[in-house]
C-alpha cells in the first residue's frame, strides 16, 4: 500500500510545475482580456465618431432639402412675376408709342 500512496500524491516539484503553468495561463488570459478591452474601447470610440458624422450628414441633408424647397418657391415666384411682367410689356410699349407723338412740340 505504501507504493500506491506514493503514486497518488504529487511531488513538490510537480505541484510547483502545475502552479507555474496555471499562473502562466492566468497571466496570458488576463493579458488577452486587457487587449480585448482596449480593442472594444477603440471600436466604441470609432463607433461614436461615425454616429456623430452620420448625424452631421443627416442634418446637412435636411438643411439642403429645406434650402432647395425654398429656392424652388423663390424661383416659382420670380417666374410668375416674370411672366406677369412679360404679359404687360407689349401693353406698356404700345402706351409709350401712342403717347410718344404727343411729347414732341410742334414749332
From TrEMBL:
Residues 53-68 have a biased composition (Basic residues). One of its GO terms (biological process) is negative regulation of gene expression. One of its GO terms (cellular component) is extracellular region. Residues 47-69 are annotated as: Disordered. PANTHER family: COILED-COIL DOMAIN-CONTAINING PROTEIN 3. This is Coiled-coil domain-containing protein 3. It comes from Hirundo rustica rustica.
